[in-house]
What we know:
It contains seven helices and four strands, in the order H-H-E-H-H-E-H-H-E-E-H. It is an alpha+beta fold. The site of one 2-acetamido-2-deoxy-beta-D-glucopyranose has 2 residues, from loops. Pfam families: At5g19230.
Amino acid sequence: MAINKLPLxxxxxxxxxxLNRPVLSDTDEEDVLxxxxxxxxxxxxxxILNKNENAECLADEIADQFKxxxxxxxxxxxxxxxxxxxxxxxxxxxxxxxxxxxxxRDGSIMPACVPRLDSNLVLTNFTKSQYSMxxxxxxxxxxxxxxEDDWIVVVLTTNTPEGSYSTASKEDxxxxxxxxxxxxxxxxxxxxxxxxxx
Length: 198
Ligand SMILES: *[C@@H]1O[C@H](CO)[C@@H](O)[C@H](O)[C@H]1NC(C)=O
Ligand SMILES: *[C@@H]1O[C@H](CO)[C@@H](O)[C@H](O)[C@H]1NC(C)=O
Ligand SMILES: *[C@@H]1O[C@H](CO)[C@@H](O)[C@H](O)[C@H]1NC(C)=O
Ligand SMILES: *[C@@H]1O[C@H](CO)[C@@H](O)[C@H](O)[C@H]1NC(C)=O
Ligand SMILES: *[C@@H]1O[C@H](CO)[C@@H](O)[C@H](O)[C@H]1NC(C)=O
């Protein structure tokens, strides 16, 4: 009898493993930009930037602050240095991302506004604007990307204490994803197993 259930069991396992794959559609522009920036770094003979979870959190929060601001020719990557918008709630935003001013000082926050986040324009807004100075800089070692509506924000981090963006214990976030992943595999295992019981 168990033999007859084998094809069904395989099918269910395959479907569950497939469902277990992360949904990418929501983060597409971020992933494309992440890859684009690292290709640019490689062309410049610079080290690639690793993903930094706290920087990504900050990038998401900053994008959220910008989301209702319209795109104009003097916002985002075209902002005149020194006229960047200041957020009164910046300390709270940092705290939310387990950061404080002392471990973010050397980092760099780069917001860009591109209608519908057209991926080619998004990349050139970083590689062909004033931001390229930062992308050309070997002191940066990590990055986080966040987006909201037409705004996409890149936060660069260094490996010095003043730019590490690493106040929070890393296990927090990684441990969480890990347990979700583990739970899914456990579910597949349990469901597969239950078929043998029938
Ligand atoms: C990167 O290194 C290659 C090989 O050493 C060199 O030909 C190229 O000009 C370098 N590119 C830059 C942007 O420095
Ligand atoms: C930005 O747009 C305004 C109004 O359309 C225009 O007067 C100004 O010259 C533009 N600035 C640049 C740098 O293109
Ligand atoms: C920022 O966090 C670091 C590491 O936890 C701590 O040593 C430092 O005192 C904090 N600085 C401020 C201004 O809160
Ligand atoms: C940045 O994006 C805007 C669209 O908001 C576009 O008009 C501009 O040309 C882009 N700048 C660069 C340097 O790619
Ligand atoms: C960054 O490097 C590229 C290629 O070497 C260069 O075209 C660009 O002007 C540099 N950006 C800055 C701001 O120096």
